[in-house]
Every structure is written in structure tokens, then in C-alpha cells.
Amino acid sequence: MRRFDLAPLYRATVGFDQVADMMDRILADTAQNPSYPPYNIEKTAEDAWRISIAVAGFAESDLNVEVREDALIVSAKKADEDEDRTYLHRGIANRAFERRFTLADHVRVAGASHVNGMLNIDLVREVPEALKPRRIEITNGDTVEAKAVEAK
């Protein structure tokens, strides 16, 4: 896999460290990024998403979902119940895992549900009122000047 040098980005920008770090994580070798468990990311509305993770064999008590430092962390650890069993073939992977998803600004977890072996995590973007676009009324020059005089 091709490695990119992001040093020019660090030298030419200020305050974009998170973007460069995210690009480093994305471009990392895929061998370091496990594919277990499989998951989907679905856009459910303009500012809403759902992450669905296949967690067959795990109970709700085995699963942990938390948000820490702008990252959604999903982990699972299965209790060892197989000590007294002898398997001829073991194809169902019930191994422990940890999966991280980086969340954008103002994205929060709205809820999580565990149905039919799927862990569904709903995310929504809630932009604060101060950051939403707003329309500024345009008035004639006399009105703006009069308000400025009244303010003195």
C-alpha cells in the first residue's frame, strides 16, 4: 500500500491537526484494521445515521457502547462458557472485539438497540443555534445610522 507524507500539510496549516490525524488513521495498513465484526453505516436522514454491527452470539450484557473524546467505541467480551464442550468444527467467531468510529463535531449518539443479532446505534447531528445560518435584515441607511446614534 502507498504511504503518503503529510508533513507539508502540517507545515502549511494551523488548526487542522485533527484532519491530518484522521487521514493518517484512514490510510494506515488494512492489516491493522480488523474486519471483525462486520458492520454497515447507513444514512437515515439529512443529519442522521445508523451503524449496524453484526454481533450474533453476544448478549446485551456482553456489549459495551460508549462515547469518549469524539469517538464512538463499541466493544464486546464473551464469557467463557465453552470449557466443557468439545467442538468438531468451530466456525462461529465469538471473540472479543473493539471497534472505533470517529464522530464529527456536533454528532451525538441518540440511542442503541440489540435486535436479532444486530447492534444498531443511531447518530444525529445537532448544530447549536449559534452556528446555524441566519438571515440578516437589510434596512435603509437612515435606520442603521439612527440606531448607532441611540446606542451612544
Brief account:
This protein has helices spanning 7-12, 17-26, 141-151, and strands at 39-45, 48-54, 63-68, 71-76, 97-102, 107-115, 118-125.
Question: H/E series, N to C?
Answer: HHEEEEEEEH
Corresponding CATH architecture of the largest domain? Sandwich
Q: CATH top level of the largest domain?
A: Mainly Beta
Strand order of the largest sheet: 1-2-7-6
Number of domains: 2
Helical coverage, percent range: 10-25%
Radius of gyration: 24 Å
Q: In terms of per-residue confidence, which ranges show pLDDT below 50 for 5 or more consecutive residues?
A: none
Beta-strand content:
25-35%
DSSP strand tally: 7
Distance between the termini: 65 Å
Mean pLDDT across the residues is 80
CATH topology of the largest domain: Immunoglobulin-like
Instruction: Sketch the major β-sheet.
Output: 4 strands, antiparallel
Structure description:
- It is a single chain.
- The chain has 152 residues and is of the alpha+beta class.
- It folds into two domains: 1-33, no CATH class; 36-151, Immunoglobulin-like, CATH 2.60.40.
- Helices cover 18% and strands 32% of the residues.
- The chain has a four-stranded antiparallel beta sheet, with no helix packed on it. Strands 3-4-5 form a three-stranded antiparallel beta sheet, with no helix packed on it.
- Strand 6 (107-115) and strand 7 form a beta hairpin.
- The mean pLDDT is 80.
